[in-house]
Every structure is written in C-alpha cells, then in structure tokens.
C-alpha cells in the first residue's frame, strides 16, 4: 500500500510518479505498473517516539484516543486551562530574557541575578559543558567563565533552553522516554532554526524551542486519560497520529498567544499549522526545514529511515547529502 509523504509541520507531498502515457488499444504491457511511492515522515517519527505495544495500527480511534481528542478540541477553543493547568510557562523566562537581551545591563548585574537562582545556574553550566555547546577541552566551572567563553547571546539561549525544559518533565517512568526524545527534538530544531533564520536567529531559536509545546500538552493529557482507560488500551490509530502532528501546532500557536509572547510567535506557528507546503515566511520556513532535518536525523539514527526516502526528503529540505551529514553529526550531540 502506498504511504503518504508528509512532514510534522504540514503535509508536503513529494511524488516520483512517472508521467502517464495515453491509454492504447494494444495488448497490455507485461511491465509492472509503477505506483506512487511516498513516505509519511510524521507517522514514522511519532511511531519512534511512542511505539504501539501491539505493533498494529488502526484507522479507528479507541475510547482512550477519543477522550484525548475531545480534550484537544476543547483546548483549541479554551487554551487558558491548558496553559494554567497542563503546561505553565516558567514565570522567570520573560524577566531573565529581557535582562540578557538588554546590553545596558552589565555582566556583573546578571551574575548577581543568577546567584539567586542556583538551580538554573547549575542547569546552564551543565549545558555549557555538554557536547553540543562545549567550546574547549577545559570545563566551565562558573558563570563568569561561561559568559567569556560562550558570549551573552549564547548564554541567553541556554537560559531559555533550561527554563523551557521544566515544562517538558514527564513523571511516569514508562513514558519518560517520550518526554526526553521530544525535548531532544525541540533542542535540535531550535539550534537548526537559528542556523537557517538568518533574518532573526534569536527569535528563530525560540520559535524552534516552542514549536512542539502543543504536542507535549497533548501527551500530558494522554497520561491523565490513561488513569481512566481500559487495561491494555494504547494510542495506535492513524487518526490519533494526525491529531498529534497537526492539531498540536495549532495548540502551540494558541499557547504562545495566551503566554503573551510577541505576536511573531503566534503568527509563525499558525502559518506552520495551516500550511500544506513550505511556508513563505522566513522564520516559519526556518523552523519547517529544521523540523524536517531533525526528524530525518533522529529516524536515521534509530535505523527507521531508508536511503531512498531520505534522499527524497532532503530534496524537499533543499539540502545535499553532504550538508545533511554535517548537520546529522552535530545533532547527535544533543
């Protein structure tokens, strides 16, 4: 059966179907017909993050899925409840980000602010010394060194990453893998978005970090629904996958609006949610490409994406295989 080709941010179809010739009255050729060959990237990625225990996928939602889908629809009409009860934005984020953005606030003042936030300071230092951000063989042991080695803008991104990471925490051990993987994906997308969004790399970075908050919210709803589910019930229908990949972007946009973030975040996320092809806006396009490359990288690393499918998707992303391999090696460090 042919597979649908899509990305997590919209359903962009690439086809290798040859041009059809007019029908002739001659005897049919013995050569087999070539069917359109597609790959559903979002379904593959979702399946990797949250595999069905039975291995079987159906087109009909079970009671567990229906319950969550209903909650998602309610959330789309009233995102305030989700923003307050399910996925609350860290209160420190806006204040700290403004201080780091303001060049008139000197480093000494910023260091004094960090002294009042020891947990955040530890998290930032851990990121400074992680393979993805480490700049030298010498370990960074204090924030003064961190500012010297990485610079103010990079510290600002690390602070944002640390604070946003708080909302991704998923308690039940059985499902923690989903939270870790989706957060890894969000970090990869934020990094790549800053690379591609040359018009405004800092906003592109934050947008990449935010693009999947709707998906995280839906997954947390799912965890609550499990408490009332029948034994053995799992989310395995194609319909639920569609909700996770399309409705989640709309929810991300609404959450950005409720959090009173600058309008550019809601605008870009809304464009990503409604677009069935590459977005035209530069920031939205940066996140669209970043998301696709991250999905391809994680699937390839998990041996769940073949070379032919990867080649097709890289063509859509506008990357050569050599360019992708360079990014792929960097993304492994997250």
Automatic annotation (TrEMBL):
Segments for region (Disordered): 1-31
HDOD domain boundaries: 86-275
Q: Which SUPFAM superfamilies match?
A: HD-domain/PDEase-like (SSF109604)
> Which InterPro entries does its entry note?
HD/PDEase_dom, HDOD, RNase_Y/CdgJ
Superkingdom assignment: Bacteria
Pfam families associated with the record = HDOD
Q: Which CDD domains match?
A: HDc
Q: What is this protein called?
A: Putative signal transduction protein
Q: What is the lineage of its organism?
A: Bacteria, Pseudomonadati, Pseudomonadota, Gammaproteobacteria, Alteromonadales
């Amino acid at each position: 059966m042919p597979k649908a080709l899509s990305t997590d941010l919209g359903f962009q179809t690439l086809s290798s179907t040859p041009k059809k010739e007019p029908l002739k009255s001659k005897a049919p050729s013995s050569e087999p017909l070539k069917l359109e060959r597609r790959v559903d990237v979002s379904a593959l990625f979702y399946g990797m993050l949250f595999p069905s225990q039975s291995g079987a996928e159906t087109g009909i939602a079970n009671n567990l899925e229906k319950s969550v889908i209903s909650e998602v629809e309610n959330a789309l009409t009233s995102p305030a409840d989700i923003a307050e009860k399910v996925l609350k934005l860290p209160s420190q984020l806006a204040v700290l980000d403004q201080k780091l953005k303001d060049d008139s606030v000197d480093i000494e003042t910023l260091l004094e602010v960090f002294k009042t936030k020891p947990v955040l300071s530890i998290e930032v230092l851990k990121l400074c010394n992680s393979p993805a951000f480490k700049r030298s063989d010498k370990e960074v042991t204090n924030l003064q060194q961190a500012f010297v080695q990485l610079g103010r803008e990079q510290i600002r991104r690390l602070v944002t990453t640390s604070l946003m990471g708080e909302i991704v925490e998923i308690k039940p051990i059985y499902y923690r893998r989903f939270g870790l993987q989706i957060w890894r994906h969000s970090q990869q997308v934020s990094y790549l978005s800053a690379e591609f969004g040359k018009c405004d790399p800092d906003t592109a970075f934050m947008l990449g970090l935010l693009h999947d908050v709707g998906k995280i919210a839906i997954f947390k709803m799912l965890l609550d629904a499990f408490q009332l589910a029948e034994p053995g019930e799992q989310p395995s229908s194609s319909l639920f996958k569609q909700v996770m990949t399309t409705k989640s972007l709309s929810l991300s946009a609404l959450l950005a609006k409720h959090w009173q973030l600058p309008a550019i975040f809601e605008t870009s996320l809304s464009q990503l949610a409604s677009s069935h092809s590459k977005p035209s806006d530069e920031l939205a396009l940066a996140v669209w490409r970043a998301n696709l490359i991250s999905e391809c990288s994680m699937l390839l690393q998990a041996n769940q994406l073949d070379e032919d499918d990867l080649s097709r998707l890289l063509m859509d992303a506008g990357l050569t295989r050599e360019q992708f391999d360079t990014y792929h090696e960097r993304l492994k460090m997250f």
